[in-house]
Write a structure and sequence with these properties.
heterodimer, A: 115 residues, mainly beta, B: mainly beta, six-stranded mixed β-sheet
């Protein structure tokens, strides 16, 4: 049973470009969470999705950031017109149950570097 | 506001000694807590969890203690090994703006001296 799969593991973008990060949850998991981590800091919640629904996006910047979890395929975190401050590790997690009351399984993260 | 804080950002212990990592949380309504281990360049890995109706839970070489009176959580690692070197995060399950989610603390870096 494969774990949470994230790709790309590393992504380099120039300012103003777009970044797309993908996450495939564990088999049987329908709840997906995205977190951002700056160096030497904890994980900050961004967004919580179920299939075709955004449940909670209170941690996501209002502009340039969007997330989706389509009926088929991986969840996508999209950052438009990236700026240097977007450089971070972005982690996806999945669970069977709502709201994180079950165990969250994390992927290995996607590390975005903005030049 | 939401916050989970740690008392010590770094902890250095001798191999074979016991380690204690502390965490303070602010939301008295939180009902579920998890400790994660994050090795360099990897994602967080579940270690152990505890619900608010318990004050202690034991796993393999790890014990989590919960003191709801002072809103304090600790992770005890017995007979620390080199492989235990990592950053440890506590996380609380909170209901914020009507939605449940895990809120992470800043983390404690544990280093093991040979």
């Amino acid at each position: 049973n494969a774990g949470v799969m994230q790709n790309p593991r590393h992504l380099v973008r120039r300012r103003g470009q777009e970044a797309r990060l993908r996450c495939s949850p564990m088999k049987g998991h329908s709840h997906v969470y995205w977190y951002r981590q700056l160096p030497e800091e904890g994980l900050k919640f961004m967004v919580y999705l179920q299939k075709e629904n955004i449940i909670d996006e209170s941690g996501m910047p209002k502009e340039r950031f969007s997330a989706e979890f389509p009926k088929e395929g991986p969840s996508i975190l999209r950052i438009q017109q990236v700026v240097r401050g977007d450089s971070a590790a972005y982690f996806c997690a999945s669970s069977r149950r709502q709201g994180g009351t079950g165990e969250l399984f994390f992927g290995e993260g996607s590390r975005l570097t903005v030049l | 506001g939401e916050s989970v804080g740690l008392h010590l950002p770094t902890l250095s212990v001798q191999e074979g000694d016991n380690s204690i990592i502390n965490c303070a949380y602010s939301n008295s309504a939180s009902d579920y807590f998890i400790w994660y281990k994050q090795e360099s360049g990897k994602g967080p890995q579940f270690i152990i969890d505890i619900r608010s109706n318990m004050d202690k839970r034991q796993g393999q070489r790890v014990t989590v203690l919960l003191n709801k009176t002072v809103k304090h959580l600790s992770l005890q690692i017995a007979a620390t090994q080199p492989g235990d070197s990592a950053v440890y995060f506590c996380a609380e399950n909170s209901i914020i703006q009507g939605a449940q989610k895990l809120v992470f603390g800043q983390g404690t870096r544990l280093t093991i001296n040979p």
